[in-house]
Design brief:
The protein is of the alpha+beta class. It has one domain. Helix content is about 30%, strand content about 20%. The strands form two sheets. Strands 4-5-2-1-6-10-9 form a seven-stranded mixed beta sheet. Strands 3-7-8 form a three-stranded antiparallel beta sheet, with no helix packed on it. Strand 9 and strand 10 form a beta hairpin. The N and C termini lie far apart (about 50 Å). The chain binds zinc ion. The site of zinc ion has 8 residues, from helix 9.
Length: about 260
């Protein structure tokens, strides 16, 4: 069973200055049994880094309209059943279960703040300025803010297929973005700048070998990459091949639509 000490030591061994902000993605279950669960992993991050941010996305606010812009990788009018299940975004809405237990532990932390995007909010500690840069059409701005401070991506027991910062880098490189809609107390809100599919993102890993810090922790690994180097690598890959980092899943709507773009 892994303990707070195990996680804290592993994060220390990554050898990243504690003053560098981090955006973290984590799978608790990848590490087997963890004494104290999500709170333990969160506490280990907070003892090693002054500024920690995680995605606290809320997909259950999403609705599908009857009509909308073309080439948007969505089937308009298909949401009759799912729209009925949608929930209004509230600032205290839990992070989606898909994000894992740790973002929700962070969101609930007494010192944490959360941004207000009705689908793609981030939660974090000592990252208020970065969170404030987010807009409904520029949802990934907080990642840019962390990059400008020399920030890092932390991947605890997960790979680049959950690395939201690659979406930021794709958008910076000019890749097609989408529009999605969220239910809010003010009505249905269109959210532009919505990213594509991340299933093909592990292809970036070989490009980052030189700059990746990696430590073994129990049955899994913790890796870290600098946001600046990640952004440069993604930009280079898309310049060489406009279809880089797309997935090969047949019927993937967003990757299919991205392939059609020039
Ligand atoms: Zn895809």
């Amino acid at each position: 069973m892994l303990t707070f000490r195990d996680f804290s030591d592993a994060l220390k061994r990554l050898d990243i200055e504690r003053t560098r902000p981090v955006i973290a993605h984590a799978s608790l279950s990848a590490f087997g049994e963890v004494r104290g669960g999500a709170e333990t992993v969160l506490a280990a991050m907070l003892i090693n880094f002054d500024q920690v941010m995680m995605p606290a996305f809320t997909y259950k606010t999403m609705v599908t309209p009857e009509v909308g812009p073309p080439d948007n990788a969505i089937t308009y009018g298909s949401g009759h059943d799912s729209n009925r299940m949608a929930e209004f975004f509230q600032p205290d809405m839990p992070a989606d279960r898909m994000m894992g237990a740790i973002p929700e532990a962070l969101r609930r932390h007494p010192k944490a703040c959360r941004s207000e995007h009705p689908i793609l909010s981030f939660a974090g500690i000592n990252v208020e300025a970065a969170l404030k840069t987010q807009t409904s059409d520029q949802p990934l701005n907080p990642i840019r803010a962390l990059k400008e401070q020399g920030g890092w991506v932390l991947l605890l027991g997960v790979d680049h297929t959950v690395n939201t910062s690659i979406h930021y880098a794709e958008a910076e490189a000019g890749r097609k973005q989408f529009v999605r809609w969220a239910l809010t107390p003010q009505g249905v809100v269109a959210c532009g700048g919505f990213p594509g599919c991340s299933d093909g993102f592990q292809a970036v890993a070989p490009r980052l070998r030189q700059v990746t810090h990696r430590v073994q922790l129990g049955p899994s690994q913790v890796t870290a990459v600098p946001l600046e180097a990640l952004t440069i690598a993604v930009r280079a890959m898309l310049a060489e091949d406009p279809q880089a980092l797309l997935c090969i899943r047949p019927g993937c709507e967003r990757c299919g639509e991205t392939r059609k773009q020039k």
